[in-house]
Specification:
The protein is an all-alpha fold. 76% of the residues lie in helices and 0% in strands.
């Protein structure tokens, strides 16, 4: 079981790094799951393992979310006694923009997903969650990052601070976040790329992407937990304490690593472009396609 603890730590590290960098946490977790399978409860069989891992890989994101709340607590707290009335109103406005930007992805992820499953017997993940889609998305968005950075090289950004984002732009960014329903696209990659296309600076784009992650990950985690609990209830399986410990460990590690990653990215984008991430995505996408074509 000690080995499984180390595996959970590794999953937490990968999640904490890749969730915030625009390089697709999904693509990395797919590779990691293939190369280093986490056996939460071997005695309960492959079906439990599959259900648990589907929930595990999403819920450890909650650790990453707590990191955002810690790093940006002052900016996100509308009840701070250190803020005057106008500052508190600006904070509430920021939360309303985050809520507005979350609507498109929520609609696709909940409503359309259910419609698709009722009509075809498979949800969005069932249709899109495969190595070809992930690898292609990594490569395509990698190319787009490089292209957008070249186009914007001498551009003067219209929005330099998160506070200056309009409600219209917030909703447009939400449309881009909707594209992250495609595995391998990267939620942060979609929102950052979209933000830069409509005139946000790299710093404002990265920060707003962090804030958008809060409702997105809370919602996704709630859906996965409810789905897992439904499976447990219907199957009558008793979830072993060791599996819950692995989940908690993964979340804790994701939280710690996310603290470092978020601060790194905010410092990085002040001095560098996202082109390096684009190159990395292209290489990773090629490796994903190559691996599954040769070994799957």
């Amino acid at each position: 079981m000690v080995i499984e603890f180390f595996k959970a730590i590794l999953f937490g590290i990968v999640e904490g790094v890749t969730e915030w960098l625009p390089i697709s946490s999904t693509g990395h977790l797919i590779l990691l799951d293939e190369l280093l399978r986490l056996d939460a409860a071997p005695s309960l069989g492959s079906e439990f393992q599959a259900e648990f891992m589907e929930m595990f890989e999403v819920v450890i994101q909650l650790g990453a979310i707590f990191a955002v709340l810690v790093v940006f607590f002052s900016k996100l707290n509308p009840f701070s006694r250190k803020k005057d009335h106008s500052e508190k109103r600006a904070t509430w406005s920021l939360w309303f923009k985050v809520a507005l930007a979350s609507i498109p992805a929520a609609f696709v992820g909940i409503v359309l997903d259910e419609i698709l499953e009722d009509a075809t017997g498979k949800d969005i993940d069932g249709w899109l969650y495969n190595s070809i889609v992930v690898g292609a998305a990594l490569i395509i968005y990698g190319i787009l990052f490089i292209v957008v950075e070249k186009v914007n090289k001498n551009r003067e950004y219209k929005v330099l601070e998160v506070a200056d984002i309009s409600y219209k732009n917030a909703f447009l960014i939400g449309i881009f976040q909707m594209l992250a329903i495609i595995p391998g696209t990267s939620r942060s990659g979609s929102t950052i790329l979209g933000s830069m296309c409509i005139g946000l600076s790299r710093v404002a784009a990265a920060e707003f992407s962090f804030f958008l992650a809060i409702p997105a990950m809370l919602g996704a985690s709630a859906i996965k937990v409810l789905g897992f609990l439904s499976y447990v209830g219907e199957s009558g399986i008793s979830v072993p304490a060791s599996a819950l410990v692995l989940l908690g460990l993964g979340m804790a590690v994701a939280f710690i690593v996310s603290l470092v990653t978020i601060k790194f990215l905010m410092d990085f984008v002040k001095k560098h472009s996202f082109s390096a991430f684009g190159i990395y995505r292209i290489i990773l996408g090629a490796l994903v396609l190559l691996y599954f074509l040769l070994f799957a």
